[in-house]
Amino acid sequence: MSRKVLIGVLVISLFSFNVYAGEVEVLHWWTSGGEAASVAVLKQLLEKEGHTWKDFAVAGGGGDAAMTVLKSRAVAGNPPTAAQVKGPQIQLWAEQGFLANLDDVAKAEKWDELIPKVIADIMKYKGHFVAVPVNVHRINWMWANPAVFKKAGIEIPKTWAEFDAAAKKIQAAELIPVAWGGQPWQEATVFETIVAAKGPEFYTKTMVKADPAALMSDTMIKVLERLKALKQCTDKGAPGRDWNLATAMVIKGEAGVQFMGDWAKGEFTAAGKKPGVDYMAPTAPETGKMFLFNVDSFIMFKQKDPEAAKAQKAMARLILQPKFQEVFNVNKGSIPVRMGMSEDPFDAVARTSMKDFVATSKGGGLVPSMAHEMAVMPAIRGAIMDTVTNFYNSDTSAKDAAAQLASAVKAAK
Ligand code: BGC
User: Fold this and answer.
1) Of 93, 201, 290, 327, which one has the fewest beta carbons inside 10 Å?
2) Which residue of 335, 337, 372 sits with most ligand 1 atoms within 8 Å of its CB, as the best mutation to test the pocket?
3) Which stretches within 97-145 are classed as H helix?
4) Cα–Cα distance, 189 to 259 (Å, whole number)
């Protein structure tokens, strides 16, 4: 090959591989089957635009491990380009001056018109966009295997009293009533779902305002007793179990139900299971009028390299575009955060969620998830979560645990 031809070939290949485009390093904790399939969509869309995706996945449902790694990278002066961070924590990162201003993308793409205001406000710091929302997850679901209920000869329960009766029959049929993931964030997820059954006022007082009097009230004692009662519905393998392995127990018909947010649906979908046929997804007992919301979002760190900044803005733009919103959310089990999307590609569970999101936002039942970092600052969440987990895994009485909740929260405030 002559020198000239060689240079020509090099130039052409440089163009076709877009080596001048930027790289985004993305920290997230989406490592289960359903989650990995969902995040792959974003990677593909970015690569189509010529950018490079450097995956920075930190396994661990609920994201606590990912947050620890993120803090140490940021302290070392080497944060990733984007990171999955949610709720009030967005403000903390922005306050410390880490985050890029995304107003230009937001303005060009009309984010203020496309995202519900309650969610847009969480993404802004002092009126400027510093994060991009991805989806809306609902927490208060009960994932049920109808074959297990059929074997036990009982209907899927709607109330906690019916649930107790069903659990006994499932046990009599030598199956496990509840697939339990014994990790603090999962126990906190079930706990807040039981709190939700007490209605929006009690939920807000305890899980959003962290009011000590409500945290040690008789109602809270009842909630804690209910949580502890679930322990006898679980199996010996529960301690430490990952959430997706618990979902697999329901998928395989080893267990009757799992209480978990709708990322669990992503696992059913990845396993080729159909709602209404292979599994049922009613809301958790007595929480039909509640919608505990959990919005995933990415914060974007300031960039020195202009190409990296370009890639970062492209990522922000793509996340709210209809194509991504559709494919990602179908895989993930969540619903689009972009308003006005067609319901056609979504299954019956997602459609219920879309309908209930609107209904509960009018009826007062739309409340932020404490366990999933949407409701209180991390120190308060930590105090609640530690107390609940210690209670669930010890002989502490519900009354003592309620008092401990109040004092732990006071100390964390
Ligand atoms: C996140 C979900 C994720 C789940 C399990 C939640 O906190 O919002 O996106 O699928 O944790 O890892």
Assistant:
1) 201
2) 372
3) 103-109, 111-114, 117-123
4) 8
Instruction: Give the contacts of 19 (CB within 8 A, at least 6 positions apart).
Output: none
List, for residues 122-179, the tens digit of each pLDDT value: 999 999 999 999 999 999 999 999 999 999 999 999 999 999 999 999 999 999 999 9
pLDDT band at residue 21 using 50, 70 and 90 as cut-offs: confident
Atom 11 (ligand 1) nearest CA: 62
Please identify, by atom number, the ligand 1 atom nearest to the C-alpha of residue 266. 10
- What end-to-end distance do the CA atoms of the chain give, in Å? 72
- Within 8 A by CB and 6+ apart from 277, the residues are none
Nearest 10 degrees: CA dihedral of 381, 387, 392, 398?
-120
Tokens (6 digits) for 181: 């993931």
Mutation test of ligand 1: which of 27, 137, 138 has the most ligand atoms closer than 8 Å to its C-beta?
137
Cβ distance 338 to 320 under 8 Å? yes
In this structure, how many other beta carbons lie within 10 angstroms of the beta carbon of residue 34? 21
Three-state SS sequence of 228-242: HHHHHHCCCCCECCC
Q: At a CB cut-off of 8 Å and minimum separation 6, what does 20 contact?
A: 14, 307
62 lines ligand 1 (CB under 6 A): yes
Q: What angle do CA 166, 294, 48 make, to 5 degrees?
A: 120
Task: Compare 6 and 393 and report the one with higher pLDDT.
Answer: 393
